[in-house]
Amino acid sequence: MAKKTAYQRVQAARDSHKISTDELIRGLTTDFFELHGDRSDGDDQAVIGGIGLLKDVPITVVGIRKGADTEENIKRHFGSPEPEGYRKALRLMQQAEKFHRPILALVNTPGAWPDVDAEYHGIGSAIAKCLQVGMQLKVPYISIIVGEGGSGGAIALACGDKVFMFEDSIYSVLSPEGYASIMWKDSSKVQQAAEALNLTPEWLQENGIIDQIIHEYHSGENLGPLRDFLANQFNELANLPIGELLRQREQRYRNF
Amino acid sequence: MLQSRFKMPSRDELKKRMDKIPDNLMKECPICHTTFFSMRMGKQRTCPNCGFGFRITARRRAKITFDTFDEMDADVTVPDQYDDKKYRGKIAKAKKVTGIKESVLTGIGSLDHQKVVAGIMDPFFIMGSLGSATGEKIVRLFEKATTEKLPVVMFTASGGARMQEGIKSLMQMAKVSQAVEAHSKAGLFYLVVLCDPTTGGVTASFAMQGDIILAESHALVGFAGRRVIEQTIMKQPPKNFQRAETVLDHGFIDAIVPRTNLKQTISQLLRLHQREASHG
Ligand SMILES: [Zn+2]
């Protein structure tokens, strides 16, 4: 198969048939129990969170998700969380720390939801808290960028010990459309923007931004191998003394 | 009668006289739209009518805020790996305009005999955007403060991520957050002053991580750009939805302080956070 261009990768990452965050959670864990709400303002549908067993080990899962149909897409703002979503994720991650549960974050978002209410409810502050607290959580923390990893809204849940990407996923400081419009005042130059942004998993791995590329899992496929892989990764991290875990995480980001 | 003694010149005559005044002598406030002679802004560069703080270089801010300021990491600058000609041109121009080599000026400042580690973002350096060297300087600032057990005062002014540095710019949000948290865990005080404009990735990281967050009057403070929001909701957002006063109303800022009172307020807050030496 010919290698995809950067823009083809963008399209593949956005494909509506891509495996959903919900299916990944159900496929990877057993006994999953979903938990709702940020205990302050509401329950953002774009963020799912809960507890489940990953090969008999309880883990906390948080995930940003798009919808399966138009109605769901609208409710979830096409995978763009509101401040309440980030606060829910943060609440569950802090709870995970209390109960010594590893954290798995699944990211599929074009970015945080840009509207007036999100500003009023402190979207900047919500992301800032996820970063500040997330990077110091005393439990293993793994993020997977499943489809789109757009800007601050993505890194908010991608600042753990390991960051993986699916083959057909992208991760960038801004969407190619936004980049084209800012840099060239021409939002039609999306293909050029996709190239310029270096948003492919291969480039990001070569440059140390992510740790590994995960083979693309399609809807309905057996997730067993991914489950084994993640269980191993969590195991390795869990074997480190907490001080060492935090030191390595700190080093990972200090080098950027 | 008074009127006859102070005869009002005609409209045309007034306009003619105004046109003779060089542009840089007159200034219009973007907030209250008052027009006034530039010299009335004073060395603080504020609007004499509404107190709005005009954008100023980091060097000027250091001068008007601190009694002494010893610059740190003055030579940390954009890495050579970014060799795009257009970008290098922007950097060269920014250096010339601001007199610094990255979008933040860092150093040890003193005010009223209190020592702080300070970071001042410069809105004239590629819009105060967050480059990888910006992140590096800020991290070093926090590391220095943590080692020397000093408070940090950070003036933010930024258009957000540095697009030219792509994902590396995004990573600075995580890198700096880590350093902020280490400083915080050491029980040290972090004071943020949000200046016009504070947006994007800076808002979504260290600008919102202060123990106390102040803002200058009428400063633009937000995450997403107005145009992006407009395209999303397909109508005009309210006029002042990202002004400091609105953000204060929604509970994300501790206080708004006009620039002319800022030095005094910072000094007061530092004093209130001093650990009593006599009890130690
Ligand atoms: Zn004014």
UniProtKB/TrEMBL annotation, chain A:
<keyword id="KW-0808">Transferase</keyword>
<dbReference type="GO" id="GO:0003989">
    <property type="term" value="F:acetyl-CoA carboxylase activity"/>
</dbReference>
<comment type="pathway">
    <text>Lipid metabolism; malonyl-CoA biosynthesis; malonyl-CoA from acetyl-CoA: step 1/1.</text>
</comment>
<feature type="domain" description="CoA carboxyltransferase C-terminal">
    <location>
        <begin position="1"/>
        <end position="236"/>
    </location>
</feature>
<keyword id="KW-0444">Lipid biosynthesis</keyword>
<dbReference type="GO" id="GO:2001295">
    <property type="term" value="P:malonyl-CoA biosynthetic process"/>
</dbReference>
<keyword id="KW-0067">ATP-binding</keyword>
<keyword id="KW-0275">Fatty acid biosynthesis</keyword>
<keyword id="KW-0547">Nucleotide-binding</keyword>
<dbReference type="Pfam" id="PF03255">
    <property type="entry name" value="ACCA"/>
</dbReference>
<dbReference type="GO" id="GO:0006633">
    <property type="term" value="P:fatty acid biosynthetic process"/>
</dbReference>
<protein>
    <recommendedName>
        <fullName>acetyl-CoA carboxytransferase</fullName>
        <ecNumber>2.1.3.15</ecNumber>
    </recommendedName>
</protein>
<dbReference type="GO" id="GO:0009317">
    <property type="term" value="C:acetyl-CoA carboxylase complex"/>
</dbReference>
<dbReference type="InterPro" id="IPR029045">
    <property type="entry name" value="ClpP/crotonase-like_dom_sf"/>
</dbReference>
<dbReference type="InterPro" id="IPR001095">
    <property type="entry name" value="Acetyl_CoA_COase_a_su"/>
</dbReference>
<dbReference type="GO" id="GO:0005524">
    <property type="term" value="F:ATP binding"/>
</dbReference>
<dbReference type="InterPro" id="IPR011763">
    <property type="entry name" value="COA_CT_C"/>
</dbReference>
<keyword id="KW-0443">Lipid metabolism</keyword>
<dbReference type="GO" id="GO:0016743">
    <property type="term" value="F:carboxyl- or carbamoyltransferase activity"/>
</dbReference>
<keyword id="KW-0276">Fatty acid metabolism</keyword>
UniProtKB/TrEMBL annotation, chain B:
<feature type="binding site">
    <location>
        <position position="29"/>
    </location>
    <ligand>
        <name>Zn(2+)</name>
    </ligand>
</feature>
<keyword id="KW-0863">Zinc-finger</keyword>
<keyword id="KW-0479">Metal-binding</keyword>
<feature type="binding site">
    <location>
        <position position="32"/>
    </location>
    <ligand>
        <name>Zn(2+)</name>
    </ligand>
</feature>
<dbReference type="InterPro" id="IPR011762">
    <property type="entry name" value="COA_CT_N"/>
</dbReference>
<keyword id="KW-0443">Lipid metabolism</keyword>
<comment type="subunit">
    <text>Acetyl-CoA carboxylase is a heterohexamer composed of biotin carboxyl carrier protein (AccB), biotin carboxylase (AccC) and two subunits each of ACCase subunit alpha (AccA) and ACCase subunit beta (AccD).</text>
</comment>
<dbReference type="GO" id="GO:0016740">
    <property type="term" value="F:transferase activity"/>
</dbReference>
<keyword id="KW-0275">Fatty acid biosynthesis</keyword>
<keyword id="KW-0444">Lipid biosynthesis</keyword>
<comment type="similarity">
    <text>Belongs to the AccD/PCCB family.</text>
</comment>
<dbReference type="InterPro" id="IPR034733">
    <property type="entry name" value="AcCoA_carboxyl_beta"/>
</dbReference>
<feature type="domain" description="CoA carboxyltransferase N-terminal">
    <location>
        <begin position="25"/>
        <end position="280"/>
    </location>
</feature>
<keyword id="KW-0276">Fatty acid metabolism</keyword>
<keyword id="KW-0963">Cytoplasm</keyword>
<keyword id="KW-0547">Nucleotide-binding</keyword>
<keyword id="KW-0862">Zinc</keyword>
<comment type="pathway">
    <text>Lipid metabolism; malonyl-CoA biosynthesis; malonyl-CoA from acetyl-CoA: step 1/1.</text>
</comment>
<keyword id="KW-0067">ATP-binding</keyword>
<protein>
    <recommendedName>
        <fullName>Acetyl-coenzyme A carboxylase carboxyl transferase subunit beta</fullName>
        <ecNumber>2.1.3.15</ecNumber>
    </recommendedName>
</protein>
<comment type="function">
    <text>Component of the acetyl coenzyme A carboxylase (ACC) complex. Biotin carboxylase (BC) catalyzes the carboxylation of biotin on its carrier protein (BCCP) and then the CO(2) group is transferred by the transcarboxylase to acetyl-CoA to form malonyl-CoA.</text>
</comment>
<feature type="binding site">
    <location>
        <position position="47"/>
    </location>
    <ligand>
        <name>Zn(2+)</name>
    </ligand>
</feature>
